[in-house]
Amino acid sequence: MEAKKANIFSPNSPRQNVNPDLDIERKNISFSTEHLTNILDGGSSNTKLRREVEAVLEADPAFSPENRYFQSQNERYETAIRKSVYLSQKMAKMGWIADSPEQYYCFKFLAEDLAFNLHIVFIKSILALGTDEQINKWIPLANKNFIIGTYAQTELGHGSNLRGLESTATFDVATQEFILNTPSVSSMKWWPGDLGRTATHAVFFAQLYLKGHCYGMHPFIVQIRSLRDHSPGQGITLGDIGPKMGFENIDNGFLILKNVRVPRENMLAKFSQVLPDGQYKKQGSDKINYLTMIVVRVNMLQGTVIPCLMKACTIAIRYSVVRRQSELKPGEPEAKVLDYQTQQQKLFPQLATAYAFHFVCNYLLGIFKRCYIQTNEGKFDLLPELHALAAGIKVITTNYCSEGVEVCRKACGGHGYSLLSGLPSLYMKVIPSCTYEGENTVLLLQTARFLIKCYGMAQMSQPLPSSVAYFSSVNFGRCQAQEKKDFLNPDIYTDAYKHRAFRGVRNVANKLRQLVEEGKGQHEAWNQCTVQLAKAAMAHSHYIVVQKFTEELGKHAKGSAIQRVLKNLCDLFALHGIFSNAGDFMQDAYFSTEQIDRVTETYLDLLAVIRRDAVPLVDAFDFSDACLNSALGSYDGHAYQRLYEWAKKSPTNQQDDRVFKTYLKPLFQNALSKL
Amino acid sequence: MEAKKANIFSPNSPRQNVNPDLDIERKNISFSTEHLTNILDGGSSNTKLRREVEAVLEADPAFSPENRYFQSQNERYETAIRKSVYLSQKMAKMGWIADSPEQYYCFKFLAEDLAFNLHIVFIKSILALGTDEQINKWIPLANKNFIIGTYAQTELGHGSNLRGLESTATFDVATQEFILNTPSVSSMKWWPGDLGRTATHAVFFAQLYLKGHCYGMHPFIVQIRSLRDHSPGQGITLGDIGPKMGFENIDNGFLILKNVRVPRENMLAKFSQVLPDGQYKKQGSDKINYLTMIVVRVNMLQGTVIPCLMKACTIAIRYSVVRRQSELKPGEPEAKVLDYQTQQQKLFPQLATAYAFHFVCNYLLGIFKRCYIQTNEGKFDLLPELHALAAGIKVITTNYCSEGVEVCRKACGGHGYSLLSGLPSLYMKVIPSCTYEGENTVLLLQTARFLIKCYGMAQMSQPLPSSVAYFSSVNFGRCQAQEKKDFLNPDIYTDAYKHRAFRGVRNVANKLRQLVEEGKGQHEAWNQCTVQLAKAAMAHSHYIVVQKFTEELGKHAKGSAIQRVLKNLCDLFALHGIFSNAGDFMQDAYFSTEQIDRVTETYLDLLAVIRRDAVPLVDAFDFSDACLNSALGSYDGHAYQRLYEWAKKSPTNQQDDRVFKTYLKPLFQNALSKL
């Protein structure tokens, strides 16, 4: 902990001089926060390494978060480029190599202030899709940032439906070149990061045309800007797409190509190539690339999405014990807002959610590793299940984390609207995850398609993938729990989630079949079921998250303090889900009115239990003040003082008196004689 | 409609050259959009007047929305001051007076670009709280902007609990002055608009101290900046609170007073005054001020909150018929995304919500008028009910509208993240309404307190206020509806909402009583019930909205096209609420599993029915392109072209090559010899 440095705006070390209202929350803690931090890091050696990396970054003034909340989009961009270039030098100096844990911790710590994100995707796609020759040519240059690449796939008019992309690559046998075009306004590339003002090269996706026949989407390397003066090449129009919600450090761009020629060798040719005579040749299987896409999704959840919720919880919970409002009992001093049941009901489910999703990601990474080994052996059986699981978990995680961040933000009242609280930028950072790396509705329906298929297999008593094995074992009786304590039994609530998910899948499968029997076409019937399909896929994913959280409990010493506190969170996550979706659980009278009332009481009682552990539970996330960058949520709890100190530095307090002289003074002088 | 002008970025009139995909949606419309516009405006003469005002503003280049999305906070502020000063001149020239409908339409149209919002509150509070003498002194100056005022109530450490405010005003008999102080960091005034960089005066709220005794909160006029050079007076520290989520045009500020003296006459003294000898004297009743607070809330809903959702619906629905994605049937062209059930399920409930809340506000304004007359006659019986209603409706409206705007934004995929879509700024504008003018949780619990009291009265068979009269008439049987069409009967679903609300109130009232019987103190028992109290208050408010929407249907010719289309929206609003909160409606087996399944089917069928009217239903909101200021949602539907044209103007495309020369060129030159 010694490495922790004070935020640049706060001259004191945050571990001293703590606000007494926060300090008292850290006395007589019922479990070891250090132990919990180690669990979250995946072992104490990881915690140690992470802290070492963070200490190096925090000690280097070049990485200071500076006045991030005060910067314009242009300033954020310049800062990001400067820090990204400097980080490469720093990593080389420290001996931290690419794809190392050190790099992962650097990116996670500095993400808001870095560029070159799509450059990394550019590198990874050449490694995945290029021949050895192509890799040897491009990767050494890209690794050293001698060229900066981007990944130009999404178009102005097309995102999720890749087959609909309009860009074209036509082979010219005479010159042995591909002619690249974005033939319409809607086909210009739109959104790729690093494209707007930085990249020199792009992996450009286009429909391949050979002798008038279309062979579908293929990747081409194209140089888009001069290395000498950064000007766009002949036939190339490009630029930045302008202001966005969040991601101001990144230069998302547009790209128009008009008859731009690249040599035949620039088509990435690991899985298919065009021969000199214009013949098309496919080779090998590109299925392993699906795995890449899946692991990118899971890493995004653990590296970006869940930490946003963890940070929001840290800020909101710490602030809620230093903010006081009204009396809980007449005559007493004003109460900490965290002592109000309504505040607990806002924040604690978010805390439990952050833990729940952290553990389910560990589970996904476990399957991913098994799947990776199998795929390399040429076996692809696990792929559809892994894809369906990862898609569903991506959706529920990004949805819940985004909503959760916003709940935390709003729970901080007016101050949650100040950028200086750190909360608005967390929302801006987390919410796009519902759209990028697979739009959530599109992904949910992919998970649903897998579930419907498996339901059909279950009906025919075929063996089922393990994550849906419950399709053949759901007990269609009613929940047997009676007393409040029964609802704290993981078997009871896991069964309830199982029942809910299965019922959702079964009903929509039946509806689908019935619509087809009534004469509807497959596609029309599917469209008429998509709302319920999406809902069933969410229920299934929710069940998986609950189940994996209960499995996590088994990994810790029975009756230990850590197990107890994790079980409280697991119970809360599960019961909050029932409380919030009671209708689903009451279907077929699985839960009676009385049982739902008891779930509610058990859930509300749990809030009071978690109250005493709330601050240690967010301390265990172990975010330094520099990483949180929040006037409300710093370790020392001096929220008001810091808000005031930071506000004074705002550029809005440094404007000259032009506005006064031009617009106001001529008015005010009319009052001079009268006051 | 002739008055409509093209957005400054689009040279063509938007009524010509419409994207065919949007144009076809406006053929063979099943009802008169003009008629519906008139209903929303409250009569055709209002529509006419509104359009005349908007035409004047749109024709004046000084009011152009310019490059709003490209401006920094400093630029937004300067624009707001410039336009606000100019608007006063323009209104004088046009003969539009204060508090006229013309002024209302101006503010609604230009709100994003105006300042002086709290100046208006300053004026209104002097009118409400000042003596005739005080009004005669200050109002003429304030009305002409010769002084600019702010309303300094909220403190850094206190918002919702007004009694907890720490600022003090101590009377000094010797000098006949009040000594004003903000005695701690947490007591500095924080958030007031126009305070940060503009206001010369403030209505400052402080605890009044006379001879050591505290008399509670009172308002004082204090000059805070020089009229000559704008410098803060002796003992005054002030400034801007810095960057926020939204409201960049407004200079929210902070204010520290240290022994600042104001003359005795500066205490606003309509309801209480301090005599020269330091005696305190109360006079009259200030209950009418509650009414002011209530009407401010309702006006805020109709003037700001609901229009945000209406605009978001307009943008998202128009965009969803020009965006195409994947095939609905194999071999067909890509389908409009609005033809997907999942997209309809996102957008149409928002559309119905916008209409529902518009009508419930009309109802509230109706009671307000009755209440205003009664209050002036010294009768205050309606006040508690009106307060409870307005608080609950404020909460449900701001919650639903904020969430709805975000649903619309996300339904536009990646482009919904571009500021140029207009959608992010709508969210930034609407979401703070959940916190200002009464924090939502605090307000809900005020409504709940009224409901609990009325429940007690119902138990004792006392007469009940009309909005809770159903407490004595709820039928505790089960819902009798059988077939799908039964659920389109307003009596059926209104009864269901009534039952849900009553059950929520009854259960929590019983729990409260039980806790007290078990020996818990009143306050502790209340706190342990607050989650359920808030939920019950939401259910009651939801019932009121549904009920008032059904009453609206009766105002239109039976069987008319307008009645049909409004009934579809009313049904959708009601059934969506049951679908989304099924658990509440299944309590006590009011709805069976089979009935809920039928509600779901009826609800999904309705989506397809509303599909054909979707574009006319948003056209009826009658927002001009300049008012929407959206690249995605303009009347002509040329979304992609406009997004591209606007992006090119972004300052991110006008930065010099400093970043390239400083950071990138030194790297890139290493690749020159290799490529």
Automatic annotation (TrEMBL), chains A, B:
Indicate where this protein is primarily found. other
Q: What Pfam families does the database record attribute to this sequence?
A: ACOX (PF01756), ACOX_C_alpha1 (PF22924), Acyl-CoA_ox_N (PF14749)
The protein's required cofactors: FAD
Highest taxon of the source? Eukaryota
Which is a GO BP term held by this UniProt record? Answer: lipid homeostasis
Which terms does the record give in the GO molecular function aspect?
Answer: 3alpha,7alpha,12alpha-trihydroxy-5beta-cholestanoyl-CoA 24-hydroxylase activity; acyl-CoA oxidase activity; FAD binding; fatty acid binding
Instruction: Kindly give the SUPFAM superfamilies that the UniProt entry links to this protein.
Output: Acyl-CoA dehydrogenase C-terminal domain-like (SSF47203), Acyl-CoA dehydrogenase NM domain-like (SSF56645)
Q: Where do the Acyl-CoA oxidase C-alpha1 domain residues begin and end?
A: 290-452
> At which positions is FAD bound?
154, 193
Could you tell me what this protein is called?
A: Acyl-coenzyme A oxidase
